[in-house]
Amino acid sequence: MDFTLTDEQQMFAETARTLLGDTCTPEHWRKLMEQGQAFDASRWAQIVENGFTLLLLPEAAGGLGLSELDLALIAIEAGYVALPEPLVESAGVGAPLLASLAPDHPLLTDPAAIIAVAPAINPVVANADVAAAILIEQDGHAYLCAPETVTLTPAETIDPLRRLFRVEWDEARAEDLGPANWDLALDRASLFAAAQGLGLAQRSVDLAIAYAKDRTQFGKPIGSYQAVKHHLASAQTAIEFARPVVLAAAADIGHGDLQARARVSHAKIVALEAAEKAARASIQVYGAMGYSWEVDVHLFLKRALALKGAWGTPAYHRNRVATRVFTQPLGADQTFARETEHA
Amino acid sequence: MDLTYTPDQIAFRAEVRSWLEAHVPKEPLEHYDATRAGFEAHRQWEATLKSGDWGMVTWPKEYGGRGLDLIQWLIFEEEYYRAGAPGRVNQNGIFLLGPTLMEFGTHEQKQRFLPPMASGEEIWAQAWSEPQAGSDLAGVRSTAVREGDDYVLNGHKIWSSRAAFADWAFGLFREPGSERHKGMSLIFFRLDQEGVTRNPIRKINGHVGFAEIFLENVRVPSFNRLGEEGQGWHICMATAGFERGLMLRSPARFQQAAAALAALWQSRKDTCDPLLEADVVRAHMNAEAYALNIYQTASRLMAGAKIGPEASTNKIFWSEMDIHLHETALAILGAEAELLPPANKPAGAEHEWLDDYIFSLAGPIYAGSNEIQRNIIAERMLGLPR
Fold this sequence. Notes:
The complex is a heterodimer.
Chain A: H1 7-23, H2 26-35, H3 41-49, H4 68-80, H5 87-101, E1 115-118, E2 125-126, E3 133-138, E4 141-145, E5 151-155, E6 164-168, E7 175-179, H6 182-214, E8 216-217, E9 220-221, H7 226-252, H8 258-286, H9 297-309, H10 314-327
Parallel strand pairs in A: 1-3
Antiparallel strand pairs in A: 2-6, 3-4, 4-7, 5-6, 8-9
Helix pairs in contact in A: 1-4, 4-6, 4-7, 5-6, 6-7, 6-8, 6-9, 7-8, 8-9, 8-10
Chain B: H1 7-23, H2 36-51, H3 70-82, H4 91-104, H5 107-119, E1 124-127, E2 143-147, E3 150-161, E4 168-174, E5 184-190, E6 196-201, E7 210-221, E8 225-226, H6 232-247, H7 251-268, H8 276-302, H9 311-333, H10 353-360, H11 370-381
Parallel strand pairs in B: 1-4
Antiparallel strand pairs in B: 2-3, 3-7, 4-5, 5-8, 6-7
Helix pairs in contact in B: 1-3, 3-7, 4-5, 4-6, 6-9, 7-8, 7-9, 8-9, 9-10, 9-11
């Protein structure tokens, strides 16, 4: 029993933090938004160069063969900068799903290739415009669609750094890869959404801290008033009790049993709640500034809202936790228990 | 990260479980705050625990412990709550003062105080607060005047948990004329000694859960001072950190309550508001999140880290989750929620939901109010100005 991260895991996350933090700055968000873009080719090249897109791919498919925990740590950093590029969706969900169905697929030889995913649970597909291929769920099968075989209709979203599309596709022109483990895809996507939620939440708090130290009213920094302090302390508390759930969910996801799936759902619920709570606290601390386009906090609120509903709503995930609660043994000795048949 | 127990840890769990199955009283004891008899029955239980060497498992053997690590402590706690074993009447000693003594005490002090603490021969009360010093603890006015090798204590302490029946108390006393955080020392005194008067105070459930203590020229040897003279504030903060961060409320307590809540819901869901299911699931998630957070903290401490101001987030989280869990139970019980035992028995509630709900309301107040915890988080964790 050990709940600590290895030095290597922490170093990898640190590398991601530096890379993403250096390039994905407020000025950069503004530039992308002015251009109506949500993708920066040079940053994507750097992400690929650092091996982040290969992290979860098995070594047999040319990947690094690392774990969901390793990628979750990077997803936290992606959330902290509200990363527009589909690192998490493609490298965390799409590419590993393709590798599990067609390990020798030529797309997997290009670490820069973006694999978008269209599970039945999501009404829209993220990043379909920059994808080298889209994996579509139908009757439990995965169909691989090349970009030239689909019609994309943009679906505008409140998040200016997120690109969504409705996809029309033709079964006759798609490649049927057979029955796929869509449960695992959903678990991974939910886990990485949760991890991003932790990053989003912390950024919202950090932005508000900086402002509350700087802004003065009644002759003092507003951060010295308890009413302001308590908003941020509550948000930080939510983060502190979401983080270990996300890490435990990442460490256990491979079991794929009721307990593992409930923990992923728990992580998704509470991490995105923390993200929303933190963003709203931050907006309140910023006051009228917080309600303005000019201050960056709204980007974190909007991403939190987007990820909260994607890959299963809170109600969907709560039902998965309920299944664990009402069909499996409960109690103090069951924290790390695995599924039993005769509960 | 490896979230599986080692074979040794699994074997340890089995050992704890079988010992508890053989020794936990079949009938619940009267509450230790209810009467002297209830208190003494719990002291007897502490002696039974000690006879199996389970008094305080993390302490070194030479001080009455078992020399186990924090993961083993968590396993012990899980089995302890799972077995429905009696509450720890000496929690102020074993969970608060004990770890502090371990860090700041001399070898002689540890030898003197820890073994009878682990065995329940000496039961401890805390004496932090005073009428004028609650959240603003640095405002304590009780004094300790050095006379040769003794201190003479004077003052008035209040809200001292267990003080109505306990043997010893520890509290902060200041050098006359000293101000605020300076000049305070942490000193132990016997509650039955000359010059000490204790007046029990009833809690809102009617039990004498705490007392006020008047000290009039109470003479104690300087051996009873923990740490250096004037270092009291620093030591007190270390005690509080440990209390909030790890040991005061073990996750097992809430996990067992959340499991009982799920069972209560299952037995009554056909007759109550279906929306309450979401709260039952939430209570489970909260208890799990708390357990995972504590496992993370235990792993960090075992890897050499120290508890910091993040301990304050724990106190907020468990106290708020405890209220939510119990208010959910009362909502499920509906019109029967107000019934006291034995009238509440038809409700199928072997759990004392109402009394535990009442107790949960104290959570955001004791061990440093949640308002103070939020200030600590904001100032020491987030770096906001005072």
